[in-house]
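thought: fold this chain, then report.
action: predict
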Amino acid sequence: MTTGTVRTDPPATGKRGGAGLLDLAWVTWRQYRWLVLGTTLAVAAVSGFFLWSYFAASGLPPCGNACPDGGASPALEAIARRVSLLEYPVLLFAGLVAAFWGAPLLSQEYEHRTHLWAWTQDVSPTRWLATRLLALCATLTVLTGLLGLTGTLVTQYLHAQDSSAFHPYKSMSFDLWPPLQIGYVLFGFALGVAVSAVARRTVIAMLVTVLGFAAVRVFVAEFLRPHYLAPLRHATPLGQSVKLEGANLITGTGYLHTSGATMPQDGSLVAECRKLAEQVSPSNATYSQVQAEMSKCLTERGWTQTYIDYQSDARVLPIQLIETGIYLGLAIVLLVVAVRLVRRTATL
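observation:
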């Protein structure tokens, strides 16, 4: 007698019972434990170094006028140099998360075709993915928060002791602020997940994710960050030196006309006046004499002041909050897109 097996596939959508969140979290841990442990060890090492640097620096006596140059002590400068060596590893952290945490999350399932098994069990694809995203995002938030907290602690202390160290708008100080660093990491992770849902190939997903992440980071830092808030303007009469107090982010410089119009430093009239000043100045004229002739040329044409547009150091926190909101918003959108793509795939 011939016997047959009738296979009944579970529905692709709809409510299912099955494993609970703890069961799914345990499966996620088993699958990603080496990645989580490796990242934890790396973060612990860097954070430990930040803490060691902070306590080493705080144990040094204040220097000030006691030092030859009236500034920071050589020992404090040595600590600042060692901490600054971690600038690029810290900047790369979010990119590495994007490439090695986010990009393979779905693409590996597609490549190994394990999604056919995982998504036809008693757990819906949406629940399966949501549990992983929740567990991994929570882990990344804790690790990144620790990294940002210790890094901010030491950089702010060193800047308070030596104003020339760790400018608040420089990446090592600005990007390490914990909420912003978490925003970078979650955005990178979400971008990797969304790209992997589309690409379905791990190498391609990693490459596209890294390029996309770098492009967004550069675009936001270079073109958006200086303009979150209307810049402040400091104007001085032409020919006088300009000096701003505090650690500021310069967003623009140029010349002011008596009518209120502005002209950038590299305007055509500036080049014309510089050329005219070089022609009328004697061959042995000093730089300041040529500059005086150039200022005279510009003044005769109504350009009587120079200006600097800037964001003051008092605006660091509002700008960091705005940028954190941008990256967290992008992360939420990308994760929603990834979930919807998985749901759509599961119903096809």
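thought: worth noting. The mean pLDDT is 85.
final: tokens above.
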